[in-house]
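To illustrate the input format used throughout this study, we show a single complete record. The first block contains the structure-token representation of the backbone; no residue identities are included at this stage. The design step must infer an amino acid for every position from geometry alone.
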């Protein structure tokens, strides 16, 4: 199993070169171990000995483990650098990086018509007092709304003033145009940098008391992460950090002066649909879901939740430093909102 790997823009080339070298090493080792197993098998057939059979089976198991590790590493490489996709797509059963150059072409060349999304009001569905602040990415992600609710805003009144944690739901693939979080909102984000779901999010922020000067942290899954990036890039809010998982981040411009943490499953097709991430100086964590999941299964929230727990368990110094800076000791009020589309 490949552990979570982080890639930053300033170390991108070094990281890719190192992974390519390790991939070639693993390929050679896997071939050598498989050859050793075959050699032991031949000698075992000539002179039967139980211990040789046991040794052959053990060497074959090691060869399979190395081959699986090699396939996992190639999947990570294909996610970092789409030009490497062909070498690993079939072995890894996740050729989604091929979508990235196609999506880049769509994003950059398709004749999109810009337009403003209509103002979308929201309804406060429930409220809970005495809510504690999240301690890490996994806890933030666990607070993203599900079902009919789309936005959660946690308000904390600190000695320096109010601070907010905002959690944004992903696309509702079963919804129609009457739901701001339907699939079409992704196209709106691509076309103009705004969408009905983004408008509804801003309505929720206003309702919760967020102003342009109050610090906020944004966390989103899938479309919710793209909304978070668009809000941070708009300059209308004081964004302290953005956390995304399974997000087609290339749909929108990413802010350059805001800490950003992306988490991507190589097996998940959705992040590739956004094309290459634009303008981000953040960190992307690439991690295979465990237990293994592919296709749309790899996009599900519970699979990302497990992966985030694995990343937090690594105690990465940069993540710890960011979380320490964002830490809130006071307890606050949690508010949930549902968008109501009006024409």
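Output of the design step:
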């Amino acid at each position: 199993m490949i552990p979570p790997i982080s890639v930053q823009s300033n170390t991108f080339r070094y990281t890719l070169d190192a992974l390519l070298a390790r991939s070639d090493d693993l390929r050679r080792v896997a071939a050598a171990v498989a050859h050793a197993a075959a050699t032991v098998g031949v000698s075992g057939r000539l002179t039967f000995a139980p211990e040789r059979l046991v040794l052959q089976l053990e060497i074959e198991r090691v060869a399979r483990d190395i081959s699986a590790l090699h396939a996992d590493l190639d999947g990570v490489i294909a996610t970092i650098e789409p030009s490497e996709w062909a070498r690993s797509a079939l072995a890894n059963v996740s050729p989604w990086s091929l979508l990235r150059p196609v999506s880049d072409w769509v994003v950059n060349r398709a004749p999109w018509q810009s337009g403003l999304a209509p103002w979308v009001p929201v309804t406060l569905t429930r409220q809970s007092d005495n809510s504690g602040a999240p301690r890490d990415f996994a806890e933030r992600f666990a607070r993203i709304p599900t079902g009919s609710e789309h936005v959660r805003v946690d308000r904390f009144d600190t000695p320096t003033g109010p601070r907010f944690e905002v959690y944004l739901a992903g696309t509702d693939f079963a919804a129609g145009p009457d739901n701001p979080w339907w699939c079409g909102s992704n196209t709106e984000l691509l076309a103009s940098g705004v969408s009905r779901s983004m408008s509804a999010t801003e309505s929720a922020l206003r309702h919760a008391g967020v102003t342009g000067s109050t610090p906020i942290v944004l966390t989103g899954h899938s479309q919710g992460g793209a909304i978070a990036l668009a809000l941070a890039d708009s300059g209308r809010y004081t964004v302290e950090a953005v956390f995304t998982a399974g997000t087609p981040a290339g749909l929108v411009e990413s802010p350059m002066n805001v800490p950003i943490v992306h988490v991507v499953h190589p097996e998940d097709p959705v992040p590739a649909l956004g094309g290459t991430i634009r303008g981000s100086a953040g960190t992307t964590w690439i991690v295979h879901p465990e237990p293994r999941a592919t296709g749309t299964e790899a996009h599900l929230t519970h699979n990302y939740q497990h992966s985030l727990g694995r990343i937090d368990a690594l105690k990465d110094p940069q993540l710890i430093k960011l979380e320490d800076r964002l830490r809130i000791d006071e307890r606050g009020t949690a508010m949930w909102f549902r968008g109501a589309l009006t024409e």
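Structural context for interpreting the output: Residues 122-339 form a domain with the Rossmann fold fold (CATH 3.40.50). DSSP finds eleven helices and nine strands in the chain.
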